[in-house]
Amino acid sequence: MTLQTIADRVGVSRMTVSNAFSRPDQLSPTLRDRILAVADELGYVGPDPAARALARGTVGAVGLLLTDTLSGAFADEVATTFLGAIADELAPTGLGLTLLSTATSGGVVPARDVAMDGALVYSCDPESTAVEWLLRRKIPLVFIDQIPADGVPAVNVADREGARAAAQHLVDLGHRRIGIVTAGVRGAHGLVAPDDIIDGFVGTHRLLGWLDALTPAGIEPAIARRPHGDPESGYQAARLLLEAPQPPTAILCFSDAMAQGVVSAAADAGLSVPEDLSVVGFDDSPGSARLRPPLTTVRQDIQAKGHAAAAALTQSIEAARNDTPAPAGHLCLPTELIVRASTARPR
Which of 334, 311, 331, 299 is nearest to 88 (CA)? Predict the structure, then answer.
């Protein structure tokens, strides 16, 4: 069954039948419906996607590179909200979304081997070879929560400003014994000093923001750092801090997910939040307001970040197709401290 078979049955050209599948705006709705009805009657499902991609020189899909395992990404409310925003932005373009891990398996390197028209690089290990492979392929890229690179559009949030506001909130409440729980791929884990931490853009800027407020107040925070991707990282980091001879009266968390672990560890230690321990998250994930007590956190607009990143990538792909300069701007979205019931003055 071919396009010509359908064209002969309907009495139109082969190109008209092709347009019914790939460029429907070129036909009247009545003619397109008639062509599709004949195709359905004859059992024709449409042009072969691989052949069509070869003819166009495009794949019709973009990649999203993640350091996390793909299953881990679906367990994170922030990541799923971000993915949903990207999918919504891509829907009118017809581009599909392919999730890529930085991990390799059986000699397959997804960033090197998977066909795609462009890629979003989302909060990846800065030393990952996967990012280098994408750069070497010279396909359109957009960096999200990454260190900006020359010639690559980037979308970030004001992590340092948001972290600074969170730490200042605790200082203003009167806390002087303040802990930090964070996570990262590389560098030391356990109880660490700031100089021991090797992190990507987000981790570095949030740490700098916390210290911006704590250092002038004469506060040297106790920092507990756990491996990235460990679902128990917040709980285990909090235990390290709470078992110290002088435990903190407040803890700043890298994310809301880690903050939930901190609240659980406090409860298991017989502590009440916020009477015995104040807790501050980061992200304002959908579950932060449902936590008991509702979580004080730093809000970032996760949906706006996803929409902006996908829009920047589609613009870059279109520019590459037309052989015109691609936009390479750096968008930084604002953050906002959201004060709820998980913080209070220390006893």
Answer: 311
Tell me if residue 209 falls in helix, strand or coil.
helix
The token duo for 19 is 């347009």
86-118 pLDDT, tens digit each: 999 999 998 999 999 888 777 788 999 999 999
* Cα-Cα-Cα-Cα dihedral sign, residues 120, 126, 130, 136: positive
Helix (H, G, I), strand (E, B) or coil at 214: helix
How is residue 272 written in tokens? 């009440």
CA pair distance 110, 99, nearest whole angstrom: 9
| Alpha-carbon gap, residue 155 to 142, rounded angstroms | 8
Given a contact cutoff of 8 angstroms between Cβ atoms, the answer to whether 44 and 1 are in contact is yes
pTM for the model: 0.84
Q: What is the radius of gyration, based on Cα positions, of the chain?
A: 25
Helix axes 201-214, 159-173, angle to 10 degrees: 30
Give pLDDT, residue 271: 98
